[in-house]
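Researcher: Before we compare anything, I want clean individual predictions. No alignment, no superposition, just each chain on its own. First chain goes here; please echo the sequence and then give the structure tokens.
Model: Echoing the first chain and its structure:
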Amino acid sequence: MSRSKQVDWAICRNLPTRIYRNLLNGKMSLQQQINKSWLVIGHVTDAVIKLPQFYVSEPGRQRVIASNQKNVHAYSSGILLDPSSVSIPRSELREIYYCPYSQAYFTWKNSNEPLSSADFLVVIDNRVFCTVDRQQPQLSLF
């Protein structure tokens, strides 16, 4: 049984969306709010989120550390764009990283510099990047 669901870009684009790595299928899962519940609308290896904010649930992170079993406790939330309609030069992107065992927040990969928001989050071949020109406000934990 396949655990991958295709996104209907005509219906789902330009709406508030959560994105997180799905450890069962290796892709990025997209959720949108439907009737007050966040439901998975698809799984992708390429996506663009406008004005993403990054969230880490500290209680969820602590459960991962205590049980050594991963769960969805960290994600980004913003406006979903159709990746075929956006062109961002690769030179304006930096890869981002999150590991619950070593940090309580998303960071720029290879720098440990905290990341809480960006202009764009871009997933290319399942690697996650952000634009680098946005001012970084204080971190938001829930």
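Researcher: Okay. Second chain, same rules.
Model: Second chain and its structure:
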Amino acid sequence: MNGPVERAREALRSGATPVEAYTELAAGTRDLRGAALAVCEALGIPRADAGTRLGDGDGRWGGFGPGEESLLGELLETIGVFDTPVALDEPGERIRALMRRAPGALGGIASGAALGVHRKLYAGRLPEAYATLVRLPVRECGDPVRYWATLGTVGELLAAWLPPGDPEAAGRVREAREHCARQAAATAR
């Protein structure tokens, strides 16, 4: 009989999402945390990292009963437990680093938006992260000139970096760049 990690690998290889693999594993055990660790390991997430993401308290796991494995899997997905890092080429890493610094000029960022941007950057989904960043409001204590200038630079680099043949990403970046330019112009007035 295969262990939970191998069963999770088999499910993922067969096209299951991490949530689906988790749901299948968790339905057959009372160790919900162990099922999540198995899926993380099958995804290539180091066990120590997975353990940190999952925490060790029973409080997170005790509120779910039989039949709620899918709900818990979706919650784990939402908070980024199953996220895997994506290495980018040198220009992509420069763009990602600029986007990680940009929120410092906002004067604060809502936790949900911060989590969403972090997850997109971690997963290498730079066009999505950029489109999110340009929609965030600059607070009164922020530095709008620096924020929009940084995102203007990011937009230029991102447009040049995108692989050809991805019209969806190109369109997302083009729209975000146009929004960024409008915001920068409004700030300069």
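Researcher: What stands out in the second chain?
Model: The mean pLDDT is 91. Additionally, DSSP finds ten helices and no strands in the chain.
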